[in-house]
Design brief:
Number of helices: 10
Oligomer: single chain
Radius of gyration: 22 Å
Order of helices and strands: HHHHHHHHHH
Helix content: 55-70%
Distance between the termini: 79 Å
Largest sheet: none
Number of strands: 0
Structural class: mainly alpha
Mean pLDDT: 90
Length: 252
């Protein structure tokens, strides 16, 4: 009997070691920062390499939570994109690659149940937050590159291209607001995260581009504020409206 107990204990230990090694082999969790190639491999695995009976890495899977947390860690792109010792063109290319990977990430946590509620609402919102922060860097670097490559950075054509990119950025942010139309698909925790993202990233957007045209976003917020039943979302939307109204340089 003692032999069997010892064997069981040893076998359990071996299984634990194998499990740990398997996790590290499949996902680069031991790396401090994930580069684009890491995202390519991880996103491919999460989209196409998860077995039907295997749990997807999420905030509710203790053994795999670290994978999700690494996936949405904004430091992974900031460590490169904020490094001004690197060239603008190089950082812009890296930002573009991250943007492509983020678009792929959006497909991972969109599953719903029979009541059309998100199975991974908090994870989905955090993936969106990763993208909102990334886009602030992505579009700024793109515009900086346009100016760097122009004979006359102050020419009307350069200004027009920059304005066009900023408009695209604002439109992309507005897509995040569209999730409010589907707020019943979120838990209360998910709605709180959704509202936190509005306050954090949209205020940063307006501060970074105070002279941009936010009229379309403002109209959408007015409509969503009336439609939403969530107190936290309503408060967040009101703060954005106040931010737009308060800054006299913002076009409304």
């Amino acid at each position: 009997m003692k032999f069997h107990n010892s064997f069981t204990l040893c076998l359990s230990s071996l299984l634990l070691i194998y499990s740990c090694n398997s996790l590290e082999d499949k996902y680069p969790v031991d790396k401090r920062y994930w580069a684009n190639e890491d995202y390519t491999n991880v996103v491919r695995t999460l989209r196409f390499g998860i077995e039907p009976d295997e749990k997807i890495p999420s905030l509710t899977t203790p053994d795999k939570r670290i994978i999700f947390e690494k996936l949405v860690d904004e430091q992974n792109y900031k460590v490169v994109l904020d490094d001004e010792e690197l060239g603008t063109k190089y950082r812009s290319e890296i930002a573009s690659d991250f943007f492509d990977r983020w678009r792929d990430m959006n497909q991972i946590y969109r599953a719903t149940d029979r009541k059309d509620r998100y199975l991974y609402d908090r994870e989905l919102v955090k993936v969106w937050h990763f993208g909102l922060g990334l886009q602030l860097h992505y579009f700024k670097l793109g515009n900086d590159l346009i100016k760097d490559n122009a004979a006359d950075p102050n020419s009307e054509s350069v200004k027009r291209n920059v304005r066009s990119n900023i408009k695209t950025l604002i439109n992309n942010y507005s897509i995040y607001l569209d999730e409010i139309n589907n707020e019943d698909a979120f838990t209360e925790e998910g709605k709180k995260l959704l509202s936190d993202g509005i306050e954090k990233y949209f205020i940063t957007l307006i501060e970074q581009y105070p002279e941009a045209d936010y009229s379309s976003m403002r109209n959408k917020i007015d409509l969503l504020k009336k439609k939403s039943q969530s107190v936290s979302i309503k408060i967040a939307l009101e703060k954005i409206l106040e931010k737009i109204e308060k800054d006299r340089s913002v076009k409304v």
